[in-house]
Amino acid sequence: MTAIALVQAQSALAQACLAPDDVTDAGIYAIPVVADGFRVSCTPHLAADGFFATQGEDFVAPYSAMQSEHWPGTLRVFLALAASDGTDERADALGELPADALRPLVDAFLAQKIGEEIKPKDCSKIERAMELLAPLPPENLGGLLTFILDVTGVKEPAICETETQ
Predict the structure, then answer these.
(1) Does any domain span residue 62?
(2) 0.90 exceeded by the pTM?
(3) How much is the pLDDT for 7?
(4) Angle at 91 between CA 70 and CA 142, to 5 degrees
(5) What is the domain range of residue 64?
(6) What does the DSSP assignment read for 95-126?
(7) How many structural domains are present in the chain?
């Protein structure tokens, strides 16, 4: 399984864009890690009876249960992003590691980035977004994130065109 994931990841590195399904996988995979970063950064700034305090664990639970299933696509996205700065050495070095050894690195990277990006003044807005998105099944939320990245023109790297586009 690890060998297949690495071959697929190396194939993704050769592309100039990210496969939409991989981006969707990464969105689903990232929710529990993002929620942990949000919890650390925002708990002191949120109401004790707000959505995250009362329903946050229920919101995150289905995503946590799906992380392993969505790890291969997440790995391909992570390796593609590692290679997108123009230095293949980093991606090559990461590609040499077993896929399961990279999971804690990816989680730590995501948590650090979230911690750096979340400002206290944004905590209530992010909580409101979580509350609005909570009714969506994980696949729909992941697909919505991919759609938003695609239509907003993210180019570093871009989302690959699908056959139906």
Answers:
(1) yes
(2) no
(3) 42
(4) 25
(5) 2-159
(6) HHS-HHHHHHHHHHHHHHHHHHH--GGGHHHH
(7) 1
* pLDDT tens string 94-110: 767 777 888 998 898 88
67 in any annotated domain: yes
Alpha-carbon distance 155 to 57, whole Å? 33
Q: Where are the beta strands (DSSP E) in the chain?
A: 17-18, 158-159
C-alpha closest to that of 15 among 104, 80, 97, 62 = 80
Q: Is residue 132 part of a domain?
A: yes
Of 3-7, 45-49, 69-73, 139-143, least confident by mean pLDDT is 3-7
For residue 85, tell me if it sits in a domain: yes
| Alpha carbon distance 85, 51 (integer Å) | 38
Residue 158: left (phi > 0), alpha (psi -120 to 50), or beta?
beta
How far is residue 50's CA from residue 155's CA, in Å, rounded to a whole number? 36
**Among the listed residues 157, 152, 159, 161, the one whose alpha carbon sits nearest the alpha carbon of residue 24:** 159
